[in-house]
């Protein structure tokens, strides 16, 4: 079969545009109401998407006063959605910095059982300033320290998922033998950050390991992704940048001895789809008019670890010197770097920059007809920039519905997207092998 | 309205009897298959039960080789069950010793949103030896230290649940105001075990606090329950013991300034129900014949913190001197004490003791006709021993079905049990007030 696109829905409030929640096309359902998410999941599954994804931040933050994010908790929400869906992959964010590896390994294994093998874990080290104070720390651990812990964390959780052989549960009623103790191994991990004896207290799940996602694109982040990730979400503002990232990451995957196809690159794509160019542009203007300067400033500040941008003039072209050096940013280095590159290449005013980021926080944004969107996706896909996309509809569910009704059929006609669900697990859909147990094969 | 029974289903493997999983009446569904639990939840809801409950142990333990427990994880399983049920309360166990308070508070608030106010939390300090090694500890924290941490943990999580006023989410689209920051408070907790700034990153849930359950009946456990619990699960082998416990606990609740009705006492009840006494006895014998000596010995050993009982003669009457002093047990003091009392009052042989405990691990067990079961429940309920029961069917779902079909109608005829669901939240069903926020009232 030809190589086909992998499409993921990034579930986020009432849409990815900062002004979405106020737009007449946005639903009025409360964002704490599970029905909002059940409806999105059902729609995404009707559209045959590979998966849906929930981001996460472990603090309220300063940006929500004028623009909501998803206020529920990913692990519990995915568990609930596993009961109302059958095919779609379910990817949740969880932090290596603020969770115990035993608890995380266990909850993701449980999710994989509940969903019959549809779970992915988006691995984050939690970069938002202020989160640390909810977990007993006076200062945020530096970028490098968070990654050092993350590397060891992965060894622990992958080890825990390997502690049960597939035949460990014998369930032999006549012999009275439920488990085979010799088919369950201790882990006995003793490292710099963790001591975990194991075994895990849950049998091996359908995928054994959830599909591993990663979204940090700093140097540490890419090194981590090359080692562990099976798919990356990434913010790439244009084709050349995306191609360079794609090439570099696949090369790093190769260098650690893995096959390039074992890591899928999924850039974000936020598309305003309409019947005409003009209508799409009009919708985008309506959305931009609904944003608040202070939300944009708070989000920009968060990316740079709390730097204050509020004294810069709003309507003069920015220069790179107005921004902190991203190498020194201890929060989200790669997200800071996206902004620096934008300023370097386009010299926007602060107001223009905030509007640009309001669209989808620096991800690739498009406004146009279904053909134009499909063309752009095809170009990225066939020219070494993407293995698929992380779809970020500006307004949800309305613009997801348009995408599914108008763009998906074009992709299918071009042979670029499936016309029915085939595989059972998310791993199978991504063409990834089920990991063998390090203890039992 | 007259006082009525509160009935909870304690979901546990294929039933509470150690031999249940091998019995012909037990289902063959895998215990990692969510359908097993969905079927039990649907049946319990059809029977109008108040709630269902999942216990938890954070390690595999030595007892599962010949008798399974529930291998899934409570928080994720309850989230999944929230999507396939509408009325029944959903109670999950989670540990104050091995979870971060911020993560626990958040996941339970999320569950309360997902279920629209049907969540309870069974608070445990994790007594099973060996669990500590999965969380970086070389030795299990002593009983008193676990409880010291638990008391502070409760102050943190209750505080976190109070950080959002009910009107904090304004969602005013025309004004562009999503949150009201002045209606969200920091917690700023700095104690001996925890430093947590807050606020929680999720709006106040329908019940604000989940209903708080507790099951440890040691002196520390009772002091903790009197302070925090709104319902207790407890193992009481007979009526006089249950009456003494009930009286003592309600007195302690009174002494800390709470109303006795603000804490419900729910003893475990494991009933083999059949058309005749004789048939019930026959079923119980079949179950006892399916138990394994080594499972019983491992479970007994775990209660006493790892003490070895395997060298005691099997068929000579035990004396209290054969058992360690429960005051020195750092694991589950109250569960050890139940065994000591059994040995003191009945002088069983070791084999008889293990059989007795195989029924439901020391809980009140009965075998008889529907009338006999209903009579016993009425006696306990009307004579100061119980506000309801934690139902522990020996085989599930078969013996739950019999209980619902045969015993529930008798209780309804006597006016002791509801004939339809009325209230929306679990708190309302228990007659408990929704807690006010300590910050906003």
TrEMBL record, chains A, B:
Record-linked Pfam families? Bac_luciferase
Write down the InterPro entries for this protein, in alphabetical order.
Diverse_substr_monoxygenases, Luciferase-like_dom, Luciferase-like_sf, NTA_MOA
SUPFAM superfamilies reported for this sequence: Bacterial luciferase-like
Answer yes or no on keyword Disulfide bond.
no
Q: Which top-rank group of organisms is this from?
A: Bacteria
Q: Which residues form the Luciferase-like domain?
A: 26-385
Family named by the database record: Belongs to the NtaA/SnaA/DszA monooxygenase family.
What terms describe the molecular function in GO for this protein?
Answer: monooxygenase activity; oxidoreductase activity, acting on paired donors, with incorporation or reduction of molecular oxygen
Keywords on this record?
A: Flavoprotein, FMN, Monooxygenase, Oxidoreductase
Its name, as the record gives it, is LLM class flavin-dependent oxidoreductase
Q: Which residues bind FMN?
A: 56, 93, 143, 147, 217-218
PANTHER family for the chain: ALKANESULFONATE MONOOXYGENASE-RELATED, C2H2 FINGER DOMAIN TRANSCRIPTION FACTOR (EUROFUNG)-RELATED
């Amino acid at each position: 079969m030809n190589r086909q696109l992998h499409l993921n829905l990034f579930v986020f409030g009432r849409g990815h545009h900062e002004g979405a929640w106020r737009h007449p096309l946005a639903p009025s359902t409360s964002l704490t109401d599970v029905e909002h998410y059940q409806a999105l999941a059902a729609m995404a599954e009707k559209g045959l998407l590979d998966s849906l994804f929930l981001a996460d931040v472990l603090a309220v933050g300063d940006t929500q006063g004028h623009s909501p994010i998803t206020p529920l908790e990913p692990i519990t929400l995915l568990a609930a959605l596993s009961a109302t869906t059958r095919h779609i992959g379910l990817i949740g964010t969880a932090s290596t910095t603020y969770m115990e590896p035993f608890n995380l390994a266990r909850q993701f294994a449980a999710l994989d059982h509940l969903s019959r093998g549809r779970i992915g874990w988006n691995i984050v080290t939690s970069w938002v300033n202020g989160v640390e104070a909810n977990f007993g720390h006076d200062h945020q651990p530096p970028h490098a320290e968070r990654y050092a812990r993350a590397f060891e964390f992965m060894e622990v959780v992958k080890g825990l998922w390997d502690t049960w052989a597939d035949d460990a549960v014998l369930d032999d009623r006549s012999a009275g033998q439920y488990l085979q103790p010799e088919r369950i191994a201790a882990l006995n991990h003793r490292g710099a950050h963790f001591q975990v004896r194991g075994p895990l207290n849950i049998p091996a799940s359908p995928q054994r390991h959830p599909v591993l996602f990663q979204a940090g694109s700093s140097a540490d982040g890419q090194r981590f992704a090359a080692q562990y990730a099976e798919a990356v979400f990434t913010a790439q503002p244009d084709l050349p940048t995306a191609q360079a990232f794609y090439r570099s990451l696949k090369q790093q995957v190769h260098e650690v001895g893995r096959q390039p196809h074992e890591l899928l690159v999924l850039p974000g794509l936020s598309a305003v789809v309409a019947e005409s160019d003009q209508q799409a542009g009009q919708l985008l203007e309506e959305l931009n008019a609904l944003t608040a300067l202070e939300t944009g400033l708070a989000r920009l500040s968060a990316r740079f670890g709390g730097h204050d941008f509020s004294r810069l003039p709003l309507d003069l072209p920015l220069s790179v010197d107005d921004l902190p050096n991203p190498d020194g940013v201890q929060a989200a280095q790669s997200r800071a770097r996206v902004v620096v590159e934008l300023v370097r290449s386009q010299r926007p005013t602060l107001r223009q920059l905030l509007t640009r980021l309001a669209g989808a926080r620096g991800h690739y944004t498009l406004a146009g007809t279904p053909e134009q969107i499909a063309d752009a996706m095809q170009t990225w896909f066939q020219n070494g920039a993407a293995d698929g996309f992380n779809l970020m509809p500006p307004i949800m569910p309305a613009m997801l519905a348009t995408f599914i009704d108008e763009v998906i059929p074009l992709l299918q006609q071009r042979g670029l997207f499936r016309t029915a669900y085939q595989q059972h697990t998310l791993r199978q859909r991504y063409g990834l092998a089920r990991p063998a147990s390090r203890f039992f094969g």
